[in-house]
Design a protein that fits this description.
The chain has 207 residues and is mostly helical. It contains nine helices and three strands. Helix 2 packs across helix 5. The longest helix has 39 residues. The chain is elongated and about 85 Å long. The N terminus is likely disordered.
Length: 207
């Protein structure tokens, strides 16, 4: 069992292309997450069976199925995922993503996949998502950013709200940044002109 989780966690953290083995492990992982919620008294065995059946038919995210059916709150699902996969959770209530991260991921992609680029550092691109088993999204984020993806977990509701704030803030910062660069170029040009001596034409005296 330990080997199973080590292999699955490795696939998630390294954002490898999705495979049949990963799909099978993901299905088993959802079952384990459901069982964890059952063991904590947040879900009944009958509700788990219904949720797994519903997810199989709709292909929706497991956490979304649980919350849409009214079985579990989003916060409970995220906490279970964080515990199961040893992934960090992030509070997005007042978080605005860094501009250098936002510009790597189109807003439409972030909205459709419910993911938010947070910041970049020497470890790669940090992203908030609600489902660490969403391998295709993690792979595409890595491909479009050319960086390793580091997953942080947050509820879908918080991610959607943060997307609206962060992309709006990013759009307002971009023109300001361009204006700052233009102003800097202008200042450098003025400094250069100040060092140039004015042209004085030679005046010849009449013979």
């Amino acid at each position: 069992m330990l080997g199973f989780w080590l292999l699955l966690t490795s696939k998630l953290r390294n954002a490898n292309p999705i495979s049949d083995d990963t799909r099978r492990m993901s299905k088993s992982a959802y079952l384990r997450i459901g069982e964890l919620l059952v063991s904590e008294g947040l879900l009944t065995p009958e509700q788990l069976e219904e949720a797994l059946s519903w997810r199989s038919r709709t292909k929706s995210r497991f956490g979304e199925v649980l919350t849409e059916l009214g079985f579990v709150r989003e916060e409970n699902v995220i906490a279970a995922l964080a515990k199961q996969f040893d992934q960090p959770m992030i509070d997005l209530s007042e978080f605005n993503a860094k501009f250098e991260a936002v510009e790597l991921v189109p807003q439409q992609f972030a909205i459709e996949r419910v993911c938010l680029p947070l910041w970049t550092d020497e470890m790669g691109l940090h992203v908030a998502i609600s489902d660490p088993l969403d391998i295709p999204t993690i792979d595409e984020l890595s491909s479009m950013s050319k960086l390793r993806v580091n997953v942080h977990l947050a509820t879908p509701t918080d991610i959607k709200r943060a997307i609206n704030r962060s992309y709006s803030a990013g759009a307002s910062r971009a023109p300001k940044a361009r204006h700052t660069r233009r102003q800097k170029d202008r200042d450098q040009l003025l400094e250069l002109l100040a060092t140039v001596e004015p042209y004085q034409p030679e005046v010849r005296k009449a013979a």
